[in-house]
Structure formats: structure tokens, C-alpha cells
Amino acid sequence: MKICISGLTGSGKTTIAEILSKKLHYPLISSSYKNLTKDIVKFTQENVNNEKLAKEFDKKIIQLAKKEKNCIITTWLGPWFIKNSFKVWLYASEEERIKRVAKREKLSLKKAKEYVEKKDNSTIKHFMKVYGINILEHEDFDLIINTESFSKNKIAEIIEKAAKVYKK
Q1: Under a CB-based contact definition with an 8 Å cutoff, are residues 147 and 14 in contact?
Q2: Out of 3.90.950.10, 3.40.50.300, 3.40.720.10, 1.10.260.40, which CATH number does the structure's domain 2-164 have?
Q3: Among 111, 156, 115, CA closest to 14
Q4: Could you give the CA distance from residue 109 to residue 122 in angstroms, rounded to a whole number?
């Protein structure tokens, strides 16, 4: 089983994927433009029209996922690219995501707000421009979880249980 976890900045993608990966003993495929730069907002804004970069980056994720029978994939576009996967969207309010990013990145709430808004907006525009994908549409997702409603371990448990009964 391939489980793809997506969500906006600070929604809990990486945290939940790491817990689930350990719990299920599945390899974790976690890839982000964050791995390529220290200033993700600037990088995304500068590369919003760089289709070649985006497609090469995403092709690597798809290739890694194809090599695995079972894995957890946490990347913004995983649910759209990894066929026959259990697709999870993690939701958190903007206010909560700002608090999480402020804590994680050691930023003031004001700076974290700027960061989250710029990153989300530039990423949304980038994926629409490069792929025609609106990452705010989740009709094809199998599970949507409000990460403010449950502990991180409970969220991993919910995903695990839902994936076990998943049929497509």
C-alpha cells in the first residue's frame, strides 16, 4: 500500500508521515523544494515558471515510489501523481499553521504569517501554472483530517486504520 500525505504549509505532513512510517515499517519518501534551498519562499517565487525543474523534481519522487510496494509519500503533489495510492489531505487552519511554523522555524508570529502566506500562495500558483493542478481541490482524496482535532499519534492511527479498509 502506498499512502500519500499532503497538506498546506504547517499542516503536519512530515510529522504524521514519520510517525506512520515507523508504525507501519514502511519506507518514507519525503521530498520538498526545501531540500534544495534555505529560502523556500524566494525559491518557489523565482521558479514559479520553471517547468523543467518542477517536472524533473516530481519525476524523481514518482520513480522512488514506483520502486516500493509499500511506502509513505509526503509531498505536496504525491496524491495527484502516485497512482493507486491512499490519498490523505491534512487540514489545519491558517492560524494554527502559523503557530506551528513559528515554533518549528523559530520565527515571530508576524514573520511566520508572512512565510506561510507567501509559501502557500507561491506554491499554489506554481502547481497550477506547471501542472494545471489546484491543490485546494480534494474531491479525489480518500481521507481528509483536521489535524487540530486529534493528537499526532491519533492521526497516524486513523490513517493506518482507514488505509487497511481502503478499496479502490
Answers
A1: no
A2: 3.40.50.300
A3: 156
A4: 20
